[in-house]
Amino acid sequence: MSGGTFRFDGRPVPFEEGQTIGAALWADGVRSWRTTRLAGRPRGFFCGIGVCFDCLLTVDGRPDERACVTPARAGADVRPGGRGDGWAG
Amino acid sequence: MARSADVVVVGAGPAGIAAAVAAAVAGAEVVLLDDAPRPGGQYWRHGPAGLGPHHHDRRGWRELSTELAEQRAAGRIALLPAHRVWRLEPSPEASGADGTEGTGGATVHAVTDEDPAGPGGGAAGRERPVTLTARAVVVATGAHDRVLPFPGWDLPGVVTPGAVQTLLKEHGVPVGRRVVVAGSGPFLLPVAASLLRTGATVVAVAEAGDGRGWLTGGRAVLARGSRLREAAGYAAVLGRHGVRPRLRTAVVEAHGTDAVEAVTLARLDRSGAVVPGTARRVACDAVAVGWGFTARVELALQAGAVAVPGPDGGPAVAADPWGRTAVPGILVAGELLGIGGAALAVVTGRLAGAAAAAHALGGSRLPVEAEPVERRLIERRRQLIAFAEVLHRAHPVPAGWPAWLRDDTLVCRCEEVPVGRLREAVDLLGATDARTAKLLTRCGMGWCQGRMCGEAVARLAAGPGTTVLGTHGRDAGLAARPVAVPLTLQALADDPTRREVGP
Amino acid sequence: MSRPSADVIVIGAGVVGAACAQAAARAGLSVVVVDRGPLAGGTTGAGEGNLLVSDKAPGPELDLARYSLERWARLDETLFQVGGPVTPSGAAVTPGAAHPPQPGPSSGGGFELERKGGLIVASGPRSLAVVTELAAAQRAAGLRVDDVPADRLRDLEPHLAPDLAGGAHYPQDAQLQPMLATARLLADARRHGARVLTGVEVTAFLGRGVTGVRTARGDLHAGAVVNAAGPWAGAVAVLAGVHLPVLPRRGVVLVTQPLPPLIRHKVYAAEYVADVASDQAGLESSAVVEGTPSGTVLVGASRERVGFDPGLPVPVLRRLAAQALRLFPVLGEARLLRAYRGYRPYCPDHLPVIGADPRVPGLVHACGHEGAGVGLAAGTGSLVAQVLTGTVPDLDLTPFRPDRFDRSGVAA
């Protein structure tokens, strides 16, 4: 799989081969892509290795994927996480 | 799919790869699992292009990965990347419940994502269960950064040293342009040096310790000449860029609205309290703070192994020098034996792999200790442990860190629990231990299940000397997790034994 | 004769012991609570917080459940708030702090009491007939219950599977947070003079008629002792020289990730009612699914007679998940974050033990509540306080009397 772009929040974000969604967003200058459930505070990376679950976002309709360990895929539809995004609720 | 093997190794970092190779060399059929797409763990975490300038001990990686490739080519190791193990169940025979000598063994429950192009044709990204049974399992799940709360630590841009290294080693992305590196531990230097090599500015390196621990380490330190040279190398890189580590200094607050814009650095006295008048604000766009590492012991504990405090106060698993736990057929390697770094992880991995194979193939016969290879490994293990203990003593968590907290500082990031609520549970509602504090406040009950806040909750709830293991024994406090990684209810409900067994 | 330490010693700092201590302290008695573990360290810490009338057939347990529900409602209004005002989910409001808004219903007592109502659902005509029959009997006994035809189920629960046969709706069912309830009951008791000693194990009873207990930290003297030791109540009874057939029945609960509000009531499958009353030894499980103010969804309920085995077998977890998905397919993509187990203390006739033990003057039991401990605790506490003060209890305690079992555990 070579590099390409995925869509985030309505715009294309470039990524290199093997990059995670989180790394690509960070390289693109994005520092947060989720808001917390209670206080609505922004979150992005924290631990970077998939154990803190701060970096959750919705990928192709699947909610609560960890941006730091999910590989970027060309054409993927990535949306900010939190507040029940991606859930039918 | 359900399959069986002689030995299953969970975790393909330095310890896991070494264990898998050793077990295969000893004649066992091995399955090696990891949740990442490529082996290497955190230490040798890399992207598709392989190891690069930010990696360490590339020669060690080349040796191990060559051995791994050989054993895979020979059909003795099957590597399963992108498999997340959520539960390790010892087999009934493991406890010798019916009075017979336990032959040991375990069932490994994992999930992986459907391959949309695969024969199952499953929905892209849907989870499916994978079950393996083995006569011996080596748990080599490594560690994650140990973190403690401070005001503003939940601002975007405040990350762990592990996150900095992941972004650099795997993706070549620097975490920021003006970075503060803080906390305590020997890894602060390599993190700072790596950032400098990318052209980033390291605004400050704040080491909370006083730097004297290395000097009192004596023989243990001198025996690790390679590490001393390594440290000198980092110091040189920092020196070239005009970065001088500040000792007895800590980040006591991060500032910003929607991302970090500055931190307050302050000097600490011997107890870790802030020395009045020393607070200084520095602008930055990223902050990496860490206090060593916390071993990921939950799978071993699920299988019945006993948790003990490691030399740094964090959780470790009780085991003999071969990594054998109290449960026959369940072994541990690497950081789970006590945080000690990659070189020690490789050594303990080789020992555990040999012991696992001996168990799986020949009942409970020990690998032969008199063999020169084994003797050298055991001696090397002893040296490396001694050195690790020096490092732990040199980089303690400052006892006075709770004084940096305000009532509205978040202690649990996942559930957004402020320190004030935790203090209320302790002072007014009668919580005397971490578990009760957790159940009263929801600390540790969110997504990360206490991995980020467990250390802080234990120390705040039950006193500075407490570990996450708590004082009420049986359930090992906050270090025990019956579900090691979240999985969908659908994947849990699916019965993998009813699926087609693959080739 | 030693100076009394208190009027009454309560063994067990779980929700039942806490309720007894709070009621006794409010009634003017001096109380000492002892527990070898932390507060709510036993079954209460593993409870879901059920306050159910729906799963009880007319009879003494339903009467006790209704009485207890009223007592909980009263406690929600009157319980002393330690630490000042609380936000709806029981969090203290720190003056000046930027406090994140907490979700959930208003609860003055600080234990997240939610009058959410319960919904039993049947998957086929036979179990629907059982539900309807039980509902009719409960209605005749004065309970509020509405039959719900298949095509109206999703008005109440939009995410229910579309192919269920029907059910019954119980507006009076409620839920609370058991840890907070226990902690606040004990705090209220302390406010009225009670002492709470955690980490202290009772090792013996003193006196023929009870005059106190021996603990690892010294003797405590009192004229009355309340046995609220949950699944260990039988062992405590042995220390007092009597037989009480209380045995553990392991239950497992799954906890999901926090979710947006998907499930409004406590929803459970019709088979649950039969399971509660059964005597099977093997794994029994039937779906119980509900949301919580924190957003997690709890999935129960399994019942196994495995003593105090601490395991969480994967087949049990798997079965609970499958049963939950049968009711709520939407939960398929929800992730399991953790699971825990507890031991319901049950008696052979599935009724609790409440009241003075005629065999041992001074000994009062408050145990054996099986899976209804939280729901029945407030009522039990009031009744025990009445027994202790010599007041006529609000309910006839004959069905719950401690000496109703013969040696083989058969209820007389």
In short:
The complex is a heterotrimer of chains A (89), B (503) and C (412). Chain B has helices at residues 14-25, 58-73, 161-171, 188-197, 219-222, 225-240, 298-302, 342-362, 372-394, 419-427, 434-441, 454-462, 489-493, and strands at 2-10, 30-33, 77-80, 83-90, 106-113, 127-139, 143-145, 158-159, 178-183, 201-207, 249-255, 262-267, 280-283, 286-290, 293-295, 307-309, 315-317, 330-332, 410-412, 417-418, 487-488.
Structure explained in plain terms:
The complex is a heterotrimer of chains A (89), B (503) and C (412). Chain A has 89 residues and is mostly beta strands. In chain A, 8% of the residues lie in helices and 30% in strands. Chain A contains 1 helix and 7 strands; from the N terminus they run E-E-H-E-E-E-E-E. Chain A is globular. Chain B is an alpha/beta fold and 503 residues long. Chain B has 3 domains: 2-144 and 294-367, FAD/NAD(P)-binding domain; 149-290, FAD/NAD(P)-binding domain (3-Layer(bba) Sandwich), CATH 3.50.50.60; 401-479, BFD-like [2Fe-2S]-binding domain (Arc Repressor Mutant, subunit A). In chain B, helix 8 crosses helix 9 (372-394). Residues 94-101, 471-475 and 499-503 of chain B have low confidence and may be disordered. Chain C has helices at 15-26, 60-78, 125-140, 153-156, 178-191, 233-239, 271-277, 314-327, 373-389, and strands at residues 8-11, 31-35, 50-51, 118-122, 146-149, 166-170, 174-175, 195-198, 202-206, 212-215, 218-221, 224-227, 247-256, 266-269, 284-291, 297-303, 335-346, 353-356, 363-367. Chain C is globular, with a radius of gyration of 21 Å. Chain C is α/β, with parallel strands linked by helices and 412 residues long. The relative contact order of chain C is 0.20. Chain C has 2 domains: 1-95 and 104-115 and 172-245 and 347-412, 3-Layer(bba) Sandwich (FAD/NAD(P)-binding domain), CATH 3.50.50; 118-171 and 247-345, D-Amino Acid Oxidase, Chain A, domain 2 (2-Layer Sandwich), CATH 3.30.9.10. Classes of the chains: A mainly beta (89), B alpha/beta (503), C alpha/beta (412). Chains in contact: A-B, A-C, B-C. At the B-C interface, helix 10, helix 11, strand 21 and helix 13 of B face helix 5, strand 13, helix 8 and strand 17 of C. Strand 21 of chain B pairs antiparallel with strand 17 (335-346) of chain C.
